[in-house]
């Protein structure tokens, strides 16, 4: 679980990005880079580090699902992700070995 301060910072950053999105877009179209520089740093979406929605983990984030690899695995095993199921590989020697990956349907 991420620290509460990190999650609060992430939420503030999301709000800043949303608040300044239109202004940032219009300034870019005009080419007014001086005014762009005066905007808050965290209003730039490139500075955003995506975090897991459930526990705030910053690494191994899967954008399609909005969770980290660990949470994705747990939710997939519980069947809470629609269209995701565990894949299996059958080798030529008729031994079934389970791969640690999932198929999307």
From TrEMBL:
InterPro entries: Ribosomal_uS14, Ribosomal_uS14_sf. Keywords: Ribonucleoprotein, Ribosomal protein, RNA-binding, rRNA-binding. Pfam families: Ribosomal_S14. One of its GO terms (cellular component) is cytoplasm. The keyword Ribonucleoprotein applies. The keyword rRNA-binding applies. Gene3D superfamilies: 30s Ribosomal Protein S14, Chain N. One of its GO terms (molecular function) is rRNA binding. One of its GO terms (biological process) is translation. It comes from the Bacteria. PANTHER family: 30S RIBOSOMAL PROTEIN S14 (PTHR19836), SMALL RIBOSOMAL SUBUNIT PROTEIN US14M (PTHR19836:SF19). This is Small ribosomal subunit protein uS14.
């Amino acid at each position: 679980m991420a620290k509460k301060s990190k999650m609060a910072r992430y939420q503030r950053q999301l709000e800043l990005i949303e608040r300044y999105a239109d202004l940032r877009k219009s300034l870019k179209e005009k080419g007014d880079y001086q005014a762009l520089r005066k905007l808050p740093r965290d209003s730039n979406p490139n500075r955003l580090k995506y975090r897991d929605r459930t526990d705030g983990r910053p690494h191994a984030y899967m954008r399609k699902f909005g969770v980290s690899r660990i949470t994705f695995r747990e939710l997939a095993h519980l069947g809470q992700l629609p269209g995701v199921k565990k894949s299996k590989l059958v080798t030529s020697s008729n031994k079934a070995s389970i791969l640690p990956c999932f198929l999307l349907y």
